[in-house]
Amino acid sequence: MRPFLIPSLVMAALLPVARADEGMWLFTKPPVRQVKEKYGFEITPQWLEHLQKSSVRFGNGGSGSFVSANGLILTNHHVGSGMIEKLSTKERDLLKNGFYAATAGEELKCPDLELNVLVSIEDVTARVTAAVKDGQSPDEAAAARRAVTADIQKKSYEATGLRSDVVTLYQGGAYHLYRYHRYTDVRLVFAPDVMAAAFGGDPDNFEFPRYCLDFCFFRAYENDAPAKTPHFLKWKTAGAQENELVFTSGHPGRTNRSVTLAQLESMRDSGFPHRLEQIFRGETLLRAWSDRDRENARRAKGAIVGTQNGRKATMARLNGLLDPALMARKKESEAKLRETAEEAFTRIEHAEKASREYEMRLRMLEGGDGFGSGLFGIARTLLRVADESAKPEGERLGEYRQASRPSLELDLLSTEPVYKDMETLRMANALTFLCAKLGATDATVQSILAGKSPDARATELIQGTTLDDVEVRRKLYEGGKEAVAASADPLILLAKLVDEEARGLRLRADATGEVISQAHREIATARFARDGDSAYPDATFSLRLSYGVVKGYMDGNVTIPPHTTFWEMHERHANQGAIAPFDLTEAWKERATKLDPLVPLNFISTNDITGGNSGSPVVNREGELVGLIFDSNAPGLVSDFFYTEEKGRAVSVHPAAIQEVMKKIYRADRVLEELTH
Amino acid sequence: MRPFLIPSLVMAALLPVARADEGMWLFTKPPVRQVKEKYGFEITPQWLEHLQKSSVRFGNGGSGSFVSANGLILTNHHVGSGMIEKLSTKERDLLKNGFYAATAGEELKCPDLELNVLVSIEDVTARVTAAVKDGQSPDEAAAARRAVTADIQKKSYEATGLRSDVVTLYQGGAYHLYRYHRYTDVRLVFAPDVMAAAFGGDPDNFEFPRYCLDFCFFRAYENDAPAKTPHFLKWKTAGAQENELVFTSGHPGRTNRSVTLAQLESMRDSGFPHRLEQIFRGETLLRAWSDRDRENARRAKGAIVGTQNGRKATMARLNGLLDPALMARKKESEAKLRETAEEAFTRIEHAEKASREYEMRLRMLEGGDGFGSGLFGIARTLLRVADESAKPEGERLGEYRQASRPSLELDLLSTEPVYKDMETLRMANALTFLCAKLGATDATVQSILAGKSPDARATELIQGTTLDDVEVRRKLYEGGKEAVAASADPLILLAKLVDEEARGLRLRADATGEVISQAHREIATARFARDGDSAYPDATFSLRLSYGVVKGYMDGNVTIPPHTTFWEMHERHANQGAIAPFDLTEAWKERATKLDPLVPLNFISTNDITGGNSGSPVVNREGELVGLIFDSNAPGLVSDFFYTEEKGRAVSVHPAAIQEVMKKIYRADRVLEELTH
């Protein structure tokens, strides 16, 4: 699972009824009754506080936990890998070779990692809602909410010195002020090599059985010394047994359990099939192009890995939406709410239906699916930033407002290499896709192709553009409207050609989006008025508790046991011919016979998680650390919309496996000592 | 290019005006005037006869030529590879290791290869057309034509002992009787290893520059001795120079240059995009599944190679149909004919338009795209063969008539292994595709899915069926209608569930096809009445002559020179890390330094070719062999519809390269001696 990135969209509320082991629960409203009834365990305030203060949020979108009183933090290798890469040099490839600080002095300071530990939660709903007056327009209301939120955060920070975030819960049903202790001096302590950490690569991504040592250790420092962290999770080598109750504490990023059935149907019938079609095209063509040449392969690698990850996630989610039983469950849960908010549901249905009329043109012409080129994106940005800058701030498209300028400039003037051969391939593919979707005889399509075939037109456009040169971009950016108007760059001309229609489509989509948001707020209000905060809200990258049991499942006729072992990992390595992504380092191969083959390696549990939970600790009733979340299996990916425990599972690294390799493969005795004593 | 397989559909006529080096010309109507005017060369009857009698047709769908007076035949390795595989044993892998008969006695007899040499051509148009009476229904006319054709063939065979085929030309404008000398004792003489023959594999398939030693040698025998072949092509080591006039003589399989603009538009807007979407899905999923496991990779290899070949060919053809200039040319050439056959063109337009209403259901439910499983195909065959056998012969669907029984039984009772894991993958994919195309709420789709998600339903169906067992199939086949009616096999039940709707769609499509065929016959008649046989007819796997010049082209800003060398081949081998499909044998690597690096390896020319021309000789004005056709480049693949010489090229092996490797790598002196002396 890739680290979760903070969402740019917030979806609205329709709260599911919790069943089975479902729920990403607020620490202020834990599932005390549910766990008591089902498992006979009493969640106490002390137990919760200890877990909360042992939990760590990674600023780059993951989770972790303290595992010693001296600030030692356990998380996933794939959460830390961005840092590990930044700490690498040409001579010192820490991803490839791994890292171990044999002494405290060797721990490596990360350049820009912020960790947060949640200290307190305050309900500020009354203050926020009081700021919004009856009769305000949606824009005015939003501005008032923004203002009061900023004020609450500012005052809290001034009073406490703590990072203070107002979190919108239940789609506006509640607002909570989360205060965090920040750690900004974070050092890398230990990381295995990436071959072991990401064993199985893309083929095994989102699968189970699984064999990943997806862990690493950082340490929080304060005043140049290891932080004192009295709240930490005690290491339990034996882990949890089959059917044992376990909890996770982490920061799930975003779920869409509140979207309506009509919205899910749109995704099922239109959005996801379209996205998949695009993924299948892109992956096939990039792989074929990769196969032609080793340099092509190098250039396309990142794009292919991203596409493959998206393919697996999208397919699993679509398969969930195509499960009539899950959709029926959604319909049933919606039925009760419709009694009080029928009209809002109907408005969403109409809006979804209306959007089907223009959504393909929107995707192709405004969304960029019909162009497929990063350079075209740059051309459009240059054109629009020039046009938008001439308008008053309040009338600009969101991404051209002053607050977005730094990130816009970062993108626009990035020196990231542009490969014209790969750009041509992608654009030819996108133009062919455009013809298939809007029709070769469509007037806009004909003007885009300018009398040429997709291949010939893509070649002409990409060969002809000079936007791959950052200095050219800079001049156009700084030259503003006049410079862009004078440009004869073929991609700038193309962006101009479609801009009026593309902007028109964007306006229609924004209007639809506004209707839907408003309806969702009404539904959420109706629900919240009735149920209050007795249910759990959609995920918001804030701390949540989930519970479940260690448990296998049936896949067709095949029994999937709850854990794997080193024996199976080595068997997979050998069966796959010991080649990437199933290879292991020389050091591993030399020392592998020392590993106890029956030690559990990865295990699965029914906990309700999603992206952002990567690195979350799994704890037992005693609050001891019995696992490290690193992935969902494919059936679990549908948790974006529904929790399902038939086959959906959270996948974790077992503490015994971490201990075993740190001792026998990596010989990281200093860290091991700190962990287990 | 894969060997051409004889077409099951014959497309109708709209004859293009020959320009540039266009044309697959009949030997009875060679392009004498065109070649004289453009190149100043006079094609004489003697020159033609020699070339005709030196040309060989391979029964499995390829071409070749005699290159010695003792029956030595040159063709492509990929034309011979089926035979080479059949001649291999577990201990003797002739594909992998190549083959050289160092003595005449070691030449290996092929189990089932038939070669044909065209001896004479007789125009039988009058006899055929006289058999069809005015006022007959289309069915009656077709039956009368079949009867007279069979009679002509039978009488010719009895009189001459020669294989006698009546060939339909100009979509019924003319009928020619082709008489062939047959060779049924054919022996393998020499084949290089497949690494050299198919160097570059799929990545380089349909590409240029290219580096393939795609040749091998057979020998025709009669009475257990090498056949006497006084007509053979003299070997010219120096080959042809840039811009030199060259001819090919071979057996292009099928072209669709006669379809109407309305039909091309249907392919462009619907048929090809659908096919590509299916290919992209299939290739992505099969490759991802392959990557998971070496055994998966072995199982999926053939399916992946086939899909990849189809992808490249389909993409190139679609790109051609999306070229407005080519479509305008088609429109222009059609305009003249519309003056006399306007109504027939209009009928085709209406038929194409009408078919858009049901074609997606047709593809999904009758074409099988919505099921994707070989086992489902078996279930449907079992169901239908039982139903159809109960009907009179004349009322049965074509594939269930008596004449098709042997091949039906061969398929149905094949012991080819069935992999249920791969079947499940393919069926889950197809069911998801079905939902996307017909909609998840469609009544038929819902009954197919039976309340489950595509993944779950596919798993259930494939796990539950016993049709992978040949004995189960045999019992159902032999048990007929009663046995099939009693079967509870889930795939049989599924086939029953959709059969009524699927058969209904088939009837609609057949009716549309009949309207189109009839209209085409009218157009062809109008055209033929006006122009006679001055133009060339669409390809029909009968002997054709094409002309052109050795010539490079521009690909964007890149100049593609007309030939490659060993130096470039070795550079590609090294640059790609010497791994498959760019690897070479150990023997090659040892001896490579002996090769003259500047010897031309593959070259391109403007000759008009298509599938079936694989193995065709390229000859110069003197009728000497100067090359061996083995592929089109990607822009040339559009030749199915239009000839284009802007970038479209035939790709050949150069005789100097064959000579060089036979001498220095394979040390096949005996064959070399025979070739060059």
From TrEMBL, chains A, B:
Coiled-coil residues: 334-361
Keyword Cytoplasm tagged: no
Sorted UniProt keywords: Aminopeptidase, Coiled coil, Hydrolase, Protease, Serine protease, Signal
Record bears the keyword Amino-acid biosynthesis: no
Pfam families associated with the record: Peptidase_S46
Signal peptide stretch: 1-20
Family: Belongs to the peptidase S46 family.
Function in brief: Catalyzes the removal of dipeptides from the N-terminus of oligopeptides.
Protein name: Dipeptidyl-peptidase
Source organism of the structure: Luteolibacter flavescens
